[in-house]
Amino acid sequence: MAVYGYLRVSTLTQAKEGESLEAQRLQVTSYAVSKGLQLPEDNVYVEAGVSGGSEFQERPEGSKLFQVLTEGDMVVFPKLDRAFRNTRNALNVLHELKARGVSVHFIDLGGDVTGNGVGAIVFTILSAFATFERERIAARIREVKQLKKAQGKFTGGKRAFGYDVVDGIKIPREDEQQVIREMVAMRKAGATYRGISDWMALTQERKMTFMGVKRVLVMEGMA
């Protein structure tokens, strides 16, 4: 029988600063001791800068841990959301590990959830809530981006051709706006996206693929 632990932080900043990792490590090692067991340092898998929304078996450390667990082993997680924020993945992983004869312990759920008691029921319910919370946060982020877009504010990523970004506000850039006006005129005259792309390569300092040309013209209301 071997004892394993799993820790996770969502951002690389948290990982570099050690935020919550030491607390998680202390929790899982103390839990093992409370069961009369030892948790070797090498058996603690640390996931740094990985979202809880990704499937457990697809994470770098989660994948390694999932592969090494065998019959009689015990794996300890400090909290449910360190392992899962997707109900289906949570239940699939639990089902697989239970079939292997691995005991899965979540400290925040009171211990072993691979049995048929209250712990297993709570695990299922809270996994669903974790999924709901992740989806709710994602929806809020989308709403904020849509609002910023409607207000003409920058929503992240590369700046759009024709605009600069000042204090989160998109400001027309006259030199590039002039290029856009010429692109629109060429398109109205029957030029293809690729033809406009070739024209830019010959006459402008900035090259643009034909798909880039299409995106710019679509933003200007040109199909």
UniProtKB/TrEMBL annotation:
It holds the Pfam family Resolvase. Transmembrane segments: none annotated. GO terms for biological process: DNA integration. The keyword DNA-binding applies. GO terms for molecular function: DNA binding; DNA strand exchange activity. InterPro entries: DNA_bind_recomb_sf (IPR038109), Recombinase_CS (IPR006118), Resolv_N (IPR006119), Resolvase-like_N_sf (IPR036162), SSR_resolvase (IPR050639). It comes from the Bacteria. Residues 2-152 form the Resolvase/invertase-type recombinase catalytic domain. The active site is at S10. Keywords: DNA integration, DNA recombination, DNA-binding. PANTHER family: DNA-INVERTASE FROM LAMBDOID PROPHAGE, SERINE RECOMBINASE PINE-RELATED. This is Recombinase family protein.
